[in-house]
């Protein structure tokens, strides 16, 4: 394995409240996490909007915007007079600490297995780090509760460079006049995506650095580099052990901007990605799992060493 880079500094401390985003982002992230970890399981009802507003100490308007966003992403359904119901859970949001071998895999159990080791090693290639952030924070809470006690955490993450124009998200327009208007506007959806990425990388980085600062983990490294590549899939590697791989599926959906504008867009939903698990077989280097692990680890290391740049 190549040497891992230097740990990020603590110049992000002022952004630690809820990951450094707005109240909308904080509540949205928390509800996503609660759906992911089973606090609000499939077919359950979310608390009423008034109760959610009191719970998170925000306005009803903020809660309503969050509910609209979760509804547009397909995780909940709201009906007048019948409340808000969870209709879909992320396919990678498993909560069991043991997962039998199967084709469809869960990110939650993958991250839990990594954090159960004395040395936590993770290599990640993704679009925004949103999914990873939720699971890192869950494991940080387990460490604080004394459930697990890793001695060292090493995270390397590759993200798309902000200088490249991504094919998604982008406004979906069919009217030529409307298309000209959209071309004349700043790339609102791209900037929104970058903002989401910044918030979640800050959040997970602070979560890990706080563990070291509090003396709960002797060493915690979170290194992020940027590559001039468009992610068409997400990749999670536990070097030499196992991998999760999942393609991004392009969907049509409305995206709610910070100013309340709703834009019909082509986008990818990371929370809905189907992940497949591949396991290294130490006894058979030619097995499908071993070959997959070797090839993807080689790909990641080559990008990390030759293409990636540190901000």
From TrEMBL:
It comes from the Bacteria. Transmembrane segments: none annotated. Residues 1-24, 79-101 are annotated as: Disordered. Keywords: DNA-binding, Transcription, Transcription regulation. Gene3D superfamilies: Winged helix-like DNA-binding domain superfamily/Winged helix DNA-binding domain. Signal peptide: none annotated. InterPro entries: Bact_HTH_transcr_reg, Tscrpt_reg_HTH_GntR, WH-like_DNA-bd_sf, WH_DNA-bd_sf. Residues 21-89 form the HTH gntR-type domain. This is HTH gntR-type domain-containing protein. The lineage of its organism: Bacteria, Bacillati, Actinomycetota, Actinomycetes, Kitasatosporales.
């Amino acid at each position: 394995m190549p040497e891992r880079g230097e740990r990020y500094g603590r110049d992000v401390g002022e952004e630690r409240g809820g990951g450094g985003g707005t109240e909308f982002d904080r509540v949205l992230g928390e509800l996503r996490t609660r759906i992911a970890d089973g606090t609000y399981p499939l077919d359950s009802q979310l608390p009423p909007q008034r109760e959610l507003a009191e719970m998170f100490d925000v306005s009803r308007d903020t809660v309503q915007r969050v509910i609209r966003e979760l509804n547009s992403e397909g995780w909940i359904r709201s009906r007048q007079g019948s409340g808000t119901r969870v209709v879909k859970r992320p396919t990678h949001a498993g909560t069991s600490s043991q997962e039998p071998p199967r084709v469809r895999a869960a990110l939650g159990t993958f991250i839990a297995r990594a954090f159960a080791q004395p040395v936590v090693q993770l290599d990640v290639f993704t679009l925004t780090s949103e999914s990873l952030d939720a699971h890192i924070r869950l494991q940080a809470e387990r460490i604080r509760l004394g459930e697990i006690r890793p001695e060292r955490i090493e995270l390397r993450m590759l993200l798309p460079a902000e200088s490249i124009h991504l094919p998604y998200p982008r406004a979906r327009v069919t009217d030529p006049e409307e298309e000209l208007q959209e071309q004349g506007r700043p790339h609102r959806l791209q900037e929104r995506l970058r903002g989401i990425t910044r918030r979640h990388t800050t959040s997970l980085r602070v979560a890990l650095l706080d563990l070291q600062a509090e003396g709960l983990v002797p060493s915690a490294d979170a290194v992020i580099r940027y590559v001039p590549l468009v992610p068409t899939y997400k990749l999670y590697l536990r070097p030499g052990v196992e991998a999760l791989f999942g393609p991004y599926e392009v969907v049509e959906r409305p995206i709610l901007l910070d100013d309340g504008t709703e834009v019909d867009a082509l986008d990818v939903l990371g929370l809905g990605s189907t992940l497949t698990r591949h396991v290294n077989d130490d006894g058979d280097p030619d097995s499908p799992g071993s070959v997959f692990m070797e090839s993807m680890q080689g790909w990641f290391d080559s990008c990390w060493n030759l293409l990636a740049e540190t901000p």
